[in-house]
Amino acid sequence: MDIKKYVRPEVLNLPTINAPDISDGMIRLNANESPQYPWGDKSSNLNRYPPIRPSTLTHKMAEFYSVSMDEILISRGSTEAVDIIIRTFCRPNLDRILITPPTFDMYQFFANLNSIAVCETPLLQENKFELNVSDVINSIKQEIKLIFLSSPNNPCGTSVSNNDVIKILNAANDKALVVLDEAYIEFSSHQTMINMINDYPNLIILRTLSKAHALAGARCGAMISNNKIISILQKILPPFSFSIPNIDQIESVLSSKNIDAAQHQIETIIQERIRLVEELRKLKSVDQIWSSDGNFIMIKFNNLELAVKALNKQNILVGLLKNNSALTQCARITIGTKSENNLLLETLRDLV
Ligand SMILES: Cc1ncc(COP(=O)(O)O)c(C=O)c1O
To answer: For residue 241, how far is its CA from the centre of ligand 1 (angstroms)?
Structure first.
């Protein structure tokens, strides 16, 4: 697969942004920064731009995901990654993406924003919202450049098996790239496909620190793929996009000690998910619950409005899925702490 054939010509022609080597003690008269400390605070280095590309953080993230530096590009959350990938490969008003609704709404959002048409292959509602693999394969046409698969999927919580992703990768080879969004993979029993990025030239994986690693506020995600794709995606990422405090904070938490702690927290959330599903299944107000591989569950209430009113009265917010006509009585509920989950159960207990 000659990846250059799939890239927007204007992107191919962009120069790659290169960072000058800046070491301590250099006199920095190259970037129109202020030579003064901000508000006289001599401990601050915020008068200087951050690195154009945060290479130390990238190195740590590469180690974290067991890939090499040229196989990863970090972004401000995987939300930004979706936009970067669409703008790299899709020509406005010509190309299309394929999505499998109900799914993460940012795929459609950034396609719309960039004048890219969206083809839909809905998940099989009658079959636990599983992916319709043959329909996805049959929908691969020339103008489809990207296929977005979220596994586990937001909002349904269902996963796509690696075998099914491989079938799609093979069918799309030389036609389209497959973006496998593994935002919630840590909560699932499925294995990541990161180790296959060099087996499938059309595979891009999205990861994020926002979910299992409890760093949604830090905005840090990653695109992981073969080095040819990463070197092209690099061109689109704006310079200086990670601030100095952001880089410092994320680097300081990416230690093996904290990663072990995250594993413990992931286990706790999975246990709470199992408990919550069991308890919710007993409630009269709940019509259906789908089993989930994420840190959330999707529930169909007998009367969504009533349930949401009662929850809001207790200051509990849940995700509403009104955009999808199949899910009008459904809510997506994030697994909270044990006491938050208990309050949720208590609130719903007396509803019908
Ligand atoms: C499937 C999926 N992918 C990506 C994201 C974006 O995560 P972030 O931008 O915080 O990395 C979300 C957020 O909810 C999501 O549900």
So the answer is: 18
Q: Which of 154, 188, 297 is the best mutation target for the ligand 1 pocket, counting ligand atoms within 8 Å of the beta carbon and taking the most?
A: 154
Q: Which residues pair with 230 in a beta bridge?
A: none
Residues in Cβ contact with 249 at an 8 Å cutoff, skipping those fewer than 6 apart = 218
Q: Is 295 in the pocket of ligand 1 (CB under 6 A)?
A: no
Which ligand 1 atom sits nearest the alpha carbon of residue 80? 9
Domain boundary assignment for the chain: 3-254, 258-349
pLDDT in tens, 102-128: 999 999 999 999 999 999 999 999 889
Do the domains spanning 3-254 and 258-349 agree at the CATH topology level?
Answer: no
Residue 104 Cβ inside 6 Å of ligand 1? The answer reads: yes
CATH class of 3-254: alpha beta
- Tell me, in angstroms, the distance from the centre of ligand 1 to residue 314's CA: 27
Considering only the top CATH level, what class is 258-349? alpha beta
Amino acid at 103: T
- Which distant-in-sequence residues (6+ apart) come within 8 Å of 69 by Cβ? 55, 58, 59, 62
pLDDT for 5-58, tens place per residue?
A: 999 999 999 988 877 778 888 999 999 999 999 988 888 999 999 999 999 999
Listing DSSP states for 107-119 in one string gives HHHHHHHTT-EEE
* Contact in structure between 193 and 325 (CB atoms under 8 Å): no
Ligand 1 atom with the smallest distance to the CA of 153 is: 1
Task: Count CA within 13 A, CB hemisphere, residue 136.
Answer: 29
Q: Which two tokens stand for residue 139?
A: 């929908």
